[in-house]
DNA sequence: GACCTGCGTGACAGCGCTTTCAGAAAAGGG
DNA sequence: CCCTTTTCTGAAAGCGCTGTCACGCAGGTC
């Protein structure tokens, strides 16, 4: 910066002011400084600036994996959003419980970011408390934590609408397929189950526990077992609502392998609108991870710039049903099922 | 840090030395300092440290998107690797040409990182030159740039082996399906084509230009058109080698919709071992993005710590053929094809 | 012409660390 | 027991910026 100042024949103060687009710098001097900076390929050192401003110009993002469609889409939207606000994006990938423990013990983001976005973690109270005294706004994404800023889709409403779609098609025996992940990360399982139950209750149908089955995920054998339970009921379901699309696809593969036509004999509905949904023509309840990412970024900006902002604000995003080829009316489905039984 | 020093009854110099595990600090003092630091939840400010050391403790990563299996896997491996080396990961998501231009103009990573990893970009010479005077090691990942450190899988060898697999199954008319992306990002298309051609030449087969077709991707209609060309040849192929799995899956869907059995009448081979490959039982040439991510991270570490290291080093990773259910011997395939023609 | 106002600029302190240097204390050697 | 060596610790400078403050200078007012 001293070099730029010398070359432009001004003081470093003026260079600093110019480069930050600040207050009053005479147009002539401004031009000189900008030219000098360009010629020297000068870029400000955030480190030095942050030392005195106290702002790091960085947003930290905590994720358990990037290896998922959801994270990829959300961050692909978040990244450019932050760039536009001239913020750096600092990524913490915490894949397993060991790393997680060490992250929460050391909190490496402390003092090195202006805000933290926590994606899709099922946090313990202790962990939440730990983040509370991190000294920066913490935004919970794709999850809601009481009293803390959160951004998420309304899973209850989504599952409610999805179930209604099946009900409207005439289905009365509707199963719910839960996907139990391996690590302690929440994928809003219970909320979706709740929405499913609400829809049934609303329709005056009983909640049959036999219709709610769980499968470890990913695990094809587990899916087969879970579906086996359903298919061996006295009154088997005519539709399956899977907690997420990947489980739904696993179910479709099991059903088709067993010569059970989808949707002729069994409607299958997913959740998420994951790319595989399109590949399998899967009807599903769509959510938009890129909207979530963007909203989370904007909330972060607001909280950084205005510390008095409402720190308990929740942003709830909508979802919507996308009917494709794996859900069909019950009556027609049964007819078709009998005519073409056995053919995929 | 002053607080810690006071609480431990030592100078800030000693605190600094202790916290960095440096040189000789007496065990007793060390214990006192560590306790004080723990009690005050003290975390070092990287900004302040970097100001004097000149090291930022950060690795910048440039990607065009995260919304792909490859990036997700690579970064999911890279992240923990860098964490283990106590480095931050600074992510730059540059999705379109505008952002790309602005990135290369401003080079925001300058002075704010110790190394830059560039993922899967098809860079112009100008852009490469721009990165050269960034003043930090730049590592090219999933691409190779002459004279610069690069990490990538051997696409030529992979495609060679994949084609050999088809040849070994008896196929002689083997098509190659190119997937032309929209934006200027390379997915090693030409290398894979080259491997395919090498294998044919090696087997003494002519290179029939009609057998190489391109499809815009993603675009189902385009795939149908490309396959149409192949199927209307005087001597249509009995196998299709797709540049990547997603194109292969698109091809399978088109073929099956047209009642052409895969693999009975047409073998299909993909490339990448993308998750959809497993879902469609697609034979493919596997690469390991997590290995790429890890190797890239390790190379970055080496270049940061040892500036004299070989800056032109290329790390080439292997790929291997995974036969699944979409490739079958030619002879048997034709028999089966005739017996069951028309059934999927 | 003395006074005020306000704009544009430079000098300088200081952000929180690291690092050199020097000095105190302990250890060893004659 | 004195002197050298080694081991440990503190004082202080300075990294590259920002922000405060003071100053010079034009233009306006009485």
From TrEMBL, chains A, B:
SUPFAM superfamilies: lambda repressor-like DNA-binding domains (SSF47413), Periplasmic binding protein-like I (SSF53822)
GO terms for MF: DNA-binding transcription factor activity; transcription cis-regulatory region binding
Alphabetically ordered keywords of this record: DNA-binding, Transcription, Transcription regulation
SMART domains given in the database record: HTH_LACI
Pfam families assigned to the protein according to its UniProt record, in alphabetical order: LacI, Peripla_BP_3
Signal peptide boundaries: none
Domain HTH lacI-type: 1-53
Name this protein carries in UniProt: LacI family transcriptional regulator
